[in-house]
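Worked Example 4.2. Consider the chain below.
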Amino acid sequence: MEAHLSFRGRRALVTGAGKGIGRAVAVALSRAGARVTALSRTAADLESLARECPGVETLCLDLADWEAVEAAVGAAGPFELLVNNAAVAELQSFLEVTRSALQRSLDVNFGAVLHVSQIVARQMIVQGVPGAIVNVSSQASKRALRDHAVYCSTKSALDMLSKVMAMELGPHKIRVNTVNPTVVMTDMGRINWSDPQKSAAMIDRIPLGKFAEVDDVVNSILFLLSDKSAMTTGSSLMIDGGFLVS
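Applying the procedure from the previous section yields the following structure tokens:
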């Protein structure tokens, strides 16, 4: 991200910050001057992040634990910036979807975003400060994918939740947007899409002919958090290389 994009003096919360996109966002925000709290349910990941980026504060929580989140996030704030990145992908065919997979996906991909955003938005309103929220969605919210019945559905619900949040929080000067990436080359993404036959089938549907890199997503998130996007709210920023136009 361009050096002049500064978040100096602003407080940010990033969920799912132990690995991948969330971790990269937390590091980028910290290096751009923000005071960052990184939330993950995996203590080892947070310890590693703290060593990599000593200025980052950490919060070890399972977002499905409503009461623990209420107490810990409430105490850690107030925040002016929020990135809801945490998600789970329970991949099952429609006929094989289990109740536990459905409930876990709803708890993390939808319920946790709603809950954390409520806590942080209330803090913003009490403080009387403008804020920005970015919810990490997916191209899967816009296109049906085999074995993604629950994942596609929860991400689609997240997109609509974000629009309602933008409508209701706008009068408080709080902007809400989503980023909707295609496959992203995180460490996990490289493992899951290392089979050339599997990856070719997806890349053939992407006009730019490649998957997204982590920085592609991080740069878009930082833009939507920044004052450079001051008139953007309720929008979904596709980071899909044109997947949806094919």
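The first strand starts at residue 11 and ends at 15. The longest helix spans residues 99-127. Compare this with Example 4.1 before moving on.
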